[in-house]
Amino acid sequence: MNDTTIKINQIKFLEQTKDLIQACMNGDRYSQSTLYEQFAPKMLGVCMRYSKCREEAEDILQDGFVQVFKSLHTFKFAGSFEGWIRKIMVYAAIANYRSRSNMLAVIRTVEDFSGIEVIDNEDVISQLGKKELLKIVQALSPMYRMVFNLYVFEGLKHWEIAKQLGISEGTSKSNFHDAKVILRKAVINNMKIAKQTSSNG
Amino acid sequence: MDKNLHEIEKLFLKELEGNEEFPSENVWDSIERKLDKDSVVSIKKKYDSLKKVSFLLVFLLTGLSIYVWKNQDKNPVATHVDISGNNKKVKTENDSLTVEPGTGRLQQTDGSLTTTGKRNNGKLLEDKSISKSQKLVDSFSPNEVNNSNQTAKSHHKIIDKAILKGNNAVPQKYLIPITLNNLSNTSIQDNKIKLNKPGESTLMEGSNSEASGFSMQENDKLMKRKSNEVAELKTPNLIEDKNTDVVSLGDIQFDHNLPAIETVSSKSIGIIEKNTVGLFDAKESLEEISLIKIDPLIRIDKIIVQKLSTKSTNQSQFAITAFYSPDIVFHHFENKVPGNANINNFDVPESKSHAVTFGALIDYSIGKHWGLQSGITLARSEFELEYEIPETLYAQQDNSGSIQYKLASPLGDAFVKPSFSNNPNIGDSIFSKSTKYNLQYLGIPLAVKYVMNKGKFTFNVLAGVSANFLTRGRLITELESGNNNETETVDKISGLKPFYFGGLAGIGLDYNMYKNLDISFSPAFRFALNPINTNVSLASFPNSAGAVLGLKMKL
């Protein structure tokens, strides 16, 4: 498939998506269902990272899609539609986080992670599956998970995260640092378990 | 430490970025249920629009009902008599009558009318009763009048005597069908009647007579050539029966043998009371009605009545209009700070914007086409800003020193202290999902109007300015509080100016429903000439378009 064919297919896809969006704006339920089926798997992947379990992720997905259908008229067709939906999902996750947490930023000291073992194997993460990595992220405390996701996956600056979460910029930075330490420790532990399992087997 | 573990976030990003999971089936069902629930809400909103439409319909129907009620007995007929040579034409608004040469018989397009008229010995003597219902015409006994000049003269003398003597015993056959509405609308003043000697033209005109719908013109040549008279008489609604649509021309007699001025009453002004129905009684009108017999060619025998009303003869240049205008408001925001991102953070959905303007306007006519308009208006607008990203409100000290959450809204700053966090510390934050604004301005407009009349319709174009005074600036914001949202109302928006200038432009159409009462419709556009807020990063210019509907009364 050459570049021209790819571009033509992209244009066709965009036109189809545009028609689909217009139909959804008119309240056509079948089109809304089609749109949902088209984007739900990717968006659930996003929501899973922001939640501690699948049920919570599906709640976020549900709220997010309702917001998508209600806000379609604000989409200007200027940028990526998928990116726009994803943005809404992230805000739905933030709203979910706010509603569930009357929580304060977790203050933990580095001493808590003093027992981390250093491993110099660069393939360490590749040896773990996506599911294991996702579980590690989900195991983070809500605040760490939010800061980590917003910084790494959404590319927000610490001051923007602070504004979104209602914390100070310094708190955001320290939470991100702590989240990384925890993730490192968790990865190593998982590697140890994997090694033990393979040696026993 | 290995670089991979040091920048562990990049490794997670690489592995989890494109992660996809398939949701369970009940997720879509839940979404559908929520969408259905929301659609019920939108139906409620639609009912608001329906209420407005129904209000307008009631308004229109009321106006229409008044119009129909006032005009159900009224069938205005303008009678136009044109006598030229042997051909005589009588025109009404709806019909055209022609007097046949020789026979004096009237022909017309509407066959329902009954006419009588004779031409007698080359001299014109026509007394016609035109009726859709012959009953009242019969009472008039026109044949007796028409038989000869002598008969006509004697009739006049009888009536004259009766009037002069105060005798109420005017024979029934001389009574003439008459209409309330016509009498009230028909007027003439002595000083407006010009009685000419031979060689001059006879003219009845002037502002008063025109206003009353009465004018008469005669060519002086016809004074000399009796057989070729030309007289033109417009007597709209001169005599018309209220109930039977009778139009009688019996009061118009053309008698060449009469002296130039038979009787002229210099005070031919009177009132016919409303209870004078059906027949015109000489007794009752003795003190009110005088006869005017103008010249040999045209004798206006009987009624030239003026309702003594200063309103009809000396109409005021002022008119007052009560109006109501449902508006569409659209705010224009100008970014006063380069690079300010706030302008992109909110959206004003049209469905969440409601506005209405009502008040009273006074028109002052300057000449035929120009006029000034002023008055007092009250404009209420309500609109909601939905934030794409929830707005963060930080706690800080307000002007009074107390610590509250500051909402930096596009219209101005407001301080809120929600019940769930009523003792905040500086730096604490809460989130606002949306903000609703409720603004009310008292306006004093001044506009120049160009007016064009066409029948019962009056078209106008207007442009002007208005001074608008803030009477209410309210802000209602939806704050996130755990699982629930709370709304907080603030009655003080610090950035709002107490006063701003606006411009207005529009076109209008007035329809004269009844006498001095018009119904007016005018689409109008109002716009702010300067921002309504100050000391904020966004300058707000509220603009609105509305359909002004009003009732106009000429004073």
What does this entry show, briefly?
Chain A is mainly α. Helices cover 71% and strands 0% of the residues of chain A. Chain B is of the alpha+beta class and 555 residues long.
Main attributes of the structure:
heterodimer, A: 201 residues, mainly alpha, B: 555 residues, alpha+beta, eight-stranded antiparallel sheet, 30 strands
State the distance separating the first and last CA atoms of chain A: 45 Å
What does the radius of gyration of chain B come to? Answer: 38 Å
Helix content bin of chain A: over 70%
Unreliable runs of chain A, pLDDT <50, ≥5 residues?
103-122
Give the strand tally of chain A: 0
Average pLDDT across residues of chain A? 80
Class inferred from helices and paired strands of chain B: alpha+beta
Main sheet makeup of chain A: none
Tally of helical runs of chain A: 8
Shape of chain A: globular
Identify low-pLDDT runs of chain B. 76-100, 102-149, 162-170, 172-313, 338-351
What fraction of the residues of chain B are assigned to beta strands by DSSP?
Answer: 35-45%
Q: How much is the average pLDDT of chain B? A: 64
Estimate the helix proportion of chain B, in percent.
10-25%
- The general outline of chain B is elongated
Structural classification of chain A: mainly alpha
What is the rounded distance between the termini of chain B? 95 Å
Largest interface between protein chains, with number of residues from each side: A-B, 53 and 44 residues
Give the oligomer, counting copies of the same chain as homo and different chains as hetero.
heterodimer
Indicate the radius of gyration of chain A in whole angstroms.
Answer: 20 Å
